């Protein structure tokens, strides 16, 4: 996010910072330097305390929020968040003076705060407080007004003037009175917090006695903490008496622990002041807290070892001087514990342990007389306690469980009529979606999740309408009688970030004691959380809700598109500090197959109450309407199609798309309800009820979507912003509302399905686009950025049928040139066009305002963006060739790619030191006399700059293999048979390890153990502490590769076998006959070993058993494998310049990193969120694994595996792509629109495809020994041809009367058309890799030796053969036209990227003169791409 704030007087957004603003910005930049991070935070705190006045507070706040990262030093994050609050308050004062913050800026600030998920450490409460305050404070910034009262703003300004004033006596009393009035009046809690934060010296003990929202009390305690530090001699006994009263766990509200935890911090902060009186008072209260506190979150502060050290001496002194008093206090508490029914046996044991730890931590012995109850007494007391609790609360744990189960049953009964449930199929890897052999019944997998004690979180992903909600209800049905199921719809929960379980259970009329009973009895729970995507959540709700404190399994459902942009999405669900592979599981719901569709139809016919139809009518509708068979694989779309079957049959349609299905369904819905409301309509004089229905639904849905709501709460007793839609006293409104497809559940209202809301939002948008063109700017389309993938998809469908809409969208874009108020609308318009694959080549976009637009994967060659406002625009993977960006504003744009390190020499390999701050690189220079000189260079991975004087020639031979020592003092490299060690700071030679007799092929390090393997058949284990040999393995063949882990050593042998030894005993554990070809690399991942080979496979091995767990056929030779620290990500580098990132959990390729132009030398993880790679192309590239765009990336249908062939039809209308994923995809060549996916049975790659000369049919040839021919008018199969072996190439004759194909068995077959009977079958001497019909009497074949053979078509005999040049051009089928109205032809390599949706960023010949806001890294990237 960049700086997106502006003043109403049109002050430029890129300002030149002066004074304190400049000091602040410079310090914020210094936060990037970890060496001075703590010092910088201290300087920022001091700057805030010294009468801070900022001229551009919004820009400064923007920069600061962008710098915040939740790191290990979380106490400093708390300080930075506190500073952010103070700056935000100054934004308020500027806002009052006509200062404006845009909607997108608010959204982006809130998004940044969402990513700061507090860890479970001693600072998480403080951080949560500041984040809550910042969120509430940012939400108070509304366009045109500020939701902070004038009274509070005036007080804040007066308070700041008071702090800066020298004469404080005259204004003190008035200011103090005003402050107390605000705290006691009916102001919002955030206004009270703002007031507290705006002053320092107005503290009074009476303020502590004010009760209310916990944030206010917390802010007051913060104020007290500062006041004590600044005025220790002014603190009286009354303050400590009040703290003592507040410190005891008497309050029952759920956030009371937060206040007590803060009091502990306040008291602990007293001891460093060295004030004897204050320390004694603080010690007394802390001892009472230590004895009485039962909340583990507060105990975490009281028992923290580092914090104990700060107060240890003063506490010991106090106890020594007041030993008898302390002993009596403890023993009195002990007697209470053992003589009342408040504590069970376990809690009493914990009490004894608590006292023991208390004495141990302070190194004291009080000789306490602690007594323990015997077992019988405890049992009796426990029974008595249960009876008392039951009398008090009315519920024990069994009654609570029954209450929840009854609630679930009632919910299911309300929804029962809507279910025509058909068991769903799932896959663990989305790339298996089209492979029916990998489909699994979801019920069996759910059972495994439920009974597996290690698995804690299950993520179920699927498309909109895939059946996620129905599956949730089915899980409740199945397990409600045997398990405690808690069901949560996120869109209906206010505080889902922290109070998820509490809010749900409160809705069931369970009180806090009931909820605590579930938690303290450790009752097993299955928590189902539906609609993670519907609230646009990117938080780890497991961690923020502290679900690790419950005996809980969690099932999340989410649209897969919501997470598609976030490669490390599993981190949003897995528990903190857990073994993700053990605790996290995920399923992908696959579309219905034919059997499931038929079963659903049968269920529908049997159970439906609407107009009946027959199976015959159903089959007729499906077969007659083109495209419908693909759409109804989605369960929800199938359900609404079944309801409109009569209309479909009568419409005589030949084709249909998604939008048209929804139009027919909604029309039928409105017509039905209009007929039922005839009398009411007449009484209320409503002319066109259907029109009113649509208007009402469109406006409601648009408002809900703009506010990120899929359900809204409205209580008739409280008017709010939804009153215009849900006022029960408005009869006309009630009549209209009854005809809308809404669900009403208590006080909550939602559309019957999220896609219905998205459909109506799109209809409203179309209406508002026409209003915008007519210069009516007052509409939602111009006020919020469209993020919702579902809404964008409906716009895409609308563009297919509405020829006028595209022109209107372009008009909106052009109108922003002269009117900045059109900025958001223009951004939405260009995002919609891009999502719909509308090509925008050669467009005049000069001066347009499109802040926040999503232009990822857009084709924008030759566009003029000069003087445009492109703030926050996403250009990831866009084609920007010859674009003009002169004088444009490019704040916080994203190219989705980082600049690289370019070396003048060849790069061999790289290594990161253990601090991740130094990148070592071996480079070599080839001289004219064939000599090589090796260099060691050190780079900063953040700045990508060479560290000063650290590129040094260190050897006359080529160095290989590189790693850092554990202490980062040495860099180890191999040179021939030696290991050379260099000083990591000076690069001077330090020492060498010599023992091998031949070249070292592999070297790996683990802590102080170095392992080397050589061509001398020996593996040596070195102890680096004393530089001695620990062990030798003498083998019978060369060592190809080495791997080492905490427990094991492994080696790949030249005979293609793998051996595994114990690192401790050096005993052989396994000897695996692994691959069919040379093994190139090995890598451990916990209890699994992964090997790569020149047989183009990756194999995952069980270390103990040697079992093959999984084989991945890569289609390329992998040379390097690395794993992330958590073991979930795997990255590979190949000799085909490709880097692939895998999710090890499901073996799925997450992304292919395209950028290198030569063999990959090495790939390494930088932490777990970025990758660094080196190549023989002389570059080191940097890749972001967790790039998350502010808008949803365009979801282009694509293949899931390697593309083998791309062809274009003769009439330039169609493009087809064949892939290893067993499918052929068909595209519109003019617009790039996806048309159809042909699935070729056999579960083997489709190797080739070709169009007939008349462009009417498409032939597909597969490795599964078959050719299938499809009609493009209906997508139906026309012909099936069984072949002798895998089909390598196919071709039609120009006249269309012959068809030829070649096979893996070296045969060439020529068929006659239209019968497809064999005319000739010819056995060749080698593979035919390409066929081309020549004259009417011959066919030309090109074999694997680049030899051209001519065949006589009259007799099938060879005419002549001759050799061809290796680089002979391919036929025209290797080019694809991919522009809109422009003749732009793409070479085959580009066409593959085009159809796969994996565009590579193209910045060639772009002009950036005078462009503002580009970062240094982006400037470097542009320079490198010229």
From TrEMBL:
WD repeat positions: 993-1032, 1072-1111, 1153-1193, 1196-1237
* Keywords, alphabetical: Repeat, WD repeat
What is the organism field in this record? Hexamita inflata
CDD domains noted in UniProt = WD40
Q: Mind telling me what this protein is named? A: WD40 repeat protein
Please name one Pfam family that this protein belongs to.
Pentapeptide
Q: Which SUPFAM superfamilies match?
A: P-loop containing nucleoside triphosphate hydrolases (SSF52540), Pentapeptide repeat-like (SSF141571), Quinoprotein alcohol dehydrogenase-like (SSF50998)
Q: Which InterPro entries match?
A: 5peptide_repeat, P-loop_NTPase, Quinoprotein_ADH-like_sf, WD40/YVTN_repeat-like_dom_sf, WD40_PAC1, WD40_repeat_CS, WD40_rpt
